[in-house]
Amino acid sequence: MSVISPIVSVVMPVFNVEPFVAQAIRSVLDQNFTDFELLIVDDGSTDSSLSIVRSFSDPRIKVIHQTNRGLAGARNTGIRCASGNLIAFIDSDDLWAEDKLARHVAHLDANPDVGVSYSQSAFIDEAGRPIGLVQRPKLAGVEPVDILTRNPIGNGSAPVIRRAALNEIAFPSPRTGVVEDCFFDESFRQSEDIECWLRIALQTSWRFAGIGRPLTLYRVNAGGLSANLDAQYESWKRAIDKARLYAPDFVAEFEGLARAYQLRYLARRAVRMRDGEKALALVGRALESDASILWKEPRRTLVTVAAAILLAGLPRQTFERIESRAMRGLRFRPTAVRSSDTRAGAL
Questions:
Q1: Helix 298-313 and helix 316-330, axial crossing angle in degrees, nearest 10
Q2: Contact 54/119 with Cβ under 8 angstroms?
Q3: Strand 86-89, strand 8-14: pairing
Q4: What is the CATH number of domain 8-224?
Q5: Which intervals hold domain Glycosyltransferase 2-like (predicted)?
Q6: Are 118 and 137 in contact (CB under 8 A)?
Q7: Which end of the chain is more exposed for a tag (fewer CB within 10 A), N or C?
Q8: Residue 120's beta-bridge partner residues?
Q9: Where in the chain is the domain with CATH 3.90.550.10?
Q10: Closest-CA residue to 278 (of 286, 127, 188)
């Protein structure tokens, strides 16, 4: 008897996310589009995450175990085990709106040349409460330069990707004696998303296009991977260096601007971490890399500069009072966050 494959395979890597994983799973199971499988890849968790996963009895859930290989390795395992023609990713500390899968399936059905469908994202805090910021990336006419400089996908819980697009960028595992395809580069523990998106954008003809609704709820987690700013920047540079190997002219043309946006993003992270000196140094390097961010995105750049200066020069309590007043004002109107400023927080 033949087995009918689901339309969508949802891949959820899990590693020590005990406080969040149940909510993430529930947000997938509550989708109003139901023709999916949920592949939960336990990446060697040592807390109670796996026990929480096992408390769900939905037949669409498949649990896969492996020793820890990182986010890229867990996603690769999920993709290899997937049976759907569409692959959706959700990190186990994020959430989805209940109509996310339905909208992405319709979007991809209506646009057969789109290989990567993504959505806007709303930011939530560690308790799952909205913080009043929405990530509003470029949705149409996306070119490789947009992926390099602004990363409109924004976060790993936003995209739904055709299996065919992932197959085109597959490469053999570099691990000795292992015969398997990889899609994400497992040598990256950060920036694995942008490295993968760049390969799709530069090495295939598939288009990127977005949905203008905040279908992903992206958790701003102070303890997440992006907390180590220096490591994050080095990983980003590695992704650019890798792209340079197969698209040297493209990278040479746009690297300075991409670097400026990345350094500005890290400066905003430093502000959120209350490291004024670091923030000031990073935003200075951003402007040195490409000052055009001042007139391409004047408000965001000037706010970052001002925040870094104030944080470096004022007592922390004074800065936080100013920040709090600014945020109260922002919450009275919808606030956009550029996609490369993921986890930028209040600033």
A1: 150
A2: no
A3: parallel
A4: 3.90.550.10
A5: 9-127
A6: yes
A7: N
A8: 214
A9: 8-224
A10: 286
Strand partners of residue 62: 39
Using N-to-C axis directions, what is the helix angle for 229-246 and 192-203, rounded to 10°? 20
